[in-house]
Write the C-alpha cells for this entry.
Amino acid sequence: MSETRVIPAKRELTTKPRLSDKVFRGVVTSGGLSSLVILGLIFVFLLSEGFQTIKSQGLYFLTGSQWNAVVTDAGTIDTKQSHFGIAAMLVGTLICASIAVIIGVPISVLSAIFLTFYAPASIKKLMITIIDLMAAFPSILFGLWGFFVLGPSAEYWAKLIHKYLGFIPIFQMPADFYTRSPFVAGIVLAIMIIPIVTSISREIFSQTPLDRIQAAYALGATRWAMLKTVAFPYARGGIVGGTMLGLGRAMGETVAVYTVLNIVYQINWHVLLGAGGNVASLILLKFGEAGPAEVKALMAAGLALFILTLIVNSAADAIVNRTSKGGR
Amino acid sequence: MSTTTVKPQKPWVASPKDRVESVLVFIVAIAISAVTVAVTPMKGKLAYVALFFISYLVLDYFFNRIKRGKAAGIDSVFRAIVGMAIAIAITPIVSILAAVWQRGHKGLHLSLFTTDMHSAAPSDPIINGGLLHAIIGTGLLVAFALVISVPLGILTALYLTEIRGRFTRPIKFLVQAMSGIPSIVAGLFILAAIVYPFTKAYNGIVGSLALSILMIPTVARTSEEVLRLIPSELREAGVALGGTQWRTVAMVVVPAARSGLVTAMILGIARIAGETAPILLLTGGGDSVNTNMFHGSMGSLPFYIFSGLTTGTDESITRAWAGILVLLVFVIVLFVLARFLGNRKVGK
C-alpha cells in the first residue's frame, strides 16, 4: 500500500529587501547625505562668487589690510585701484578668539571639575541646567549685554590692566580710548563659549574610569592628588578638543562682536584699544553699503571664514572623538 | 563582664566643629577684604571680590595645612578655586537675566502684542507701536525653517542609527562640521545661491532657508542621541514579527522615540529663534505685518532688536530691550519644555 505524500514546495527564503525597504533606504540615505550636499554647495557657491576677487587680489587678499572698493562709471569694480585684503580682520578674529579662549577655557574646565567631582547632586543638576540654558541665549543678547552692562566695567578693568601691566607690548595704548575694545569683545566671546566648553569637558571628566579614581583614593590620595594623577591625564585630549570647538565658535561669531566692538579697518595688536573687528563683523558692516561688485569680495571673505572654521572644527571633532572612544 | 558596643564611625564626614570652623574662615576672609577696601585706596566691587578670593585662598590653605597637613592644604586650595570658577561662570547669566528684566520691563505695554511699528517713529513714546510684525515674522520664519529642516535632520539621524551604511562616519563628521558654520556664512550662501540668481529681492522664505542650514545639525544630533537610546530589542522584536525594516522603523522605533524627537525640534527652534546675522542679510526687515513669505520684506524679533539698537534713541533702545525680553522668555519656555520632555522615559 503506497501512500502519496504531498511535500509542500520549499518556501523561498530571501534576504533580498522588498520594494518598500528599497524606497525607505533610498529616501533615508539621500536625506542623510543632505549635510554633504549643503556643505558642498556652500563651498561651490562662495567660491564661484568670490573667485574673481581672490584671483585679482592674489596673495594680497590674505596679507593686505585695506578694504576700499573703487567703482568705475560702468558700475563694475576697478580691479586695479580697489583693494580687498582681509589681514586686518583675520588678525582681529584671532585676537578676539584667543582672548575668549584664554579667559573662557580655564573657567569652563574648572567649572566642569566642580560639577563632576565636587558638586552635591542637588546643586549639580540645577547648575548644569543653568549653564545649558546659557548656550541657548541668542547672540544678539550677549551683544546688547556686553555693550550696555559689561562695557563700562570692562573699560575700568582695561584701565587697571594698562596701568599695572602696560609694559607688556599688547597692553600698550597709542591713544587714550578704552571703549569697545577687542578686550571687551573677547570677554563677551569667552562668556559665550563657556557653556559648550564646560559641557564637553564635563562629558570627558565623567568618563574617567571609576576604578582608577577609587584606586587613587585607596592609596590615600586627596581629591586634588586624584585629579592631578588620574582625571587630568585622562581628560587632556578632550579638553584640547573642547577648547578648539570653543575657538571655532568664537571665530565665527557675528552679531555680538559687531555690537560690542568698535569696528575699524586696521591691524590692531593693542587689545585694550577701542578698534578692531573680525571677518564676520566686517561682512555685516560692509554689506549694508556694498554694491553688487563689492559683495563678491565679501563672498570671498565669507569663504575664508568658512574654510577657517571648518578646519578648526574638524580638528576639534577628531581630537574629541579619539579621546572619548579610546581612553588610554 | 562588660560589653562595649562599637558605634560606627565616619571619620570622613565633617563634624559640626569642622563646619563652624570653615564658615569662620569664610567670614574672616570677607572681613579682611572689607577692611582692606576701607583702609587702602583700592575701591569698587572688583577690589572687594579679588581681595576676598585671595584672602580666602590664603586663609583656607594655612588653616587646613596647620590642621591636617600639607596635602590637605593644597587640596582645599583647589577646592576653593573650582568653587570660584563656577561662581564666575554663573555670574554673567545672572547679570544677563537681571539686565534684561530691569531694562526690558519698561518697554512692556499691552498693545505691544497687537500693533506694529509702521506708524511709530523711533523717538515716539514707548506706548506707540508694538512688535506684532516681529512676532509674526519670527513665527513664520521659524515655522518654514522647521518644515525644511526637521525631515532632513531626522532622516540624517535615521541614517546614522538605522541604516548605518558606508557613509555613517563621513556623515557624522559632516553634521558636526555643519554645526560649526558661522551663521553669517549661511546667510552669504543663500545670498549667492538663491537671492542673486533668482529672487533678486528680500523676502521671508530665503531667511527660512538660511535658518534651516543652522537648524539641521541641531535636530540631527539630538535625534540621533534619542534614537540610540531605543533598545535594540524593540527593533529585533519588530523584525522577528515579520516586519520589514521600513515598517519596524515607522511603527516601532520612531513612535518609541516620539517625545525625544519633539525635544530635538524644540531645541532646533531655540537655536534659530534669536539668530540675527542671516536675518539681517536676507529678510530686509520691515515695520508692518507681512504674512506673505514669498513677497516683501519680513520683520522679525532679532531684526527689531538690532534696528532698535542701531537707531540709538532712548526709546528705540528701550524697545530693543523689550524685544529681547520677549525673545528670551520664548527661548526659556522652549528650553524648559525640552528639558521636561527629555527627562521623560524613552518609550512612553
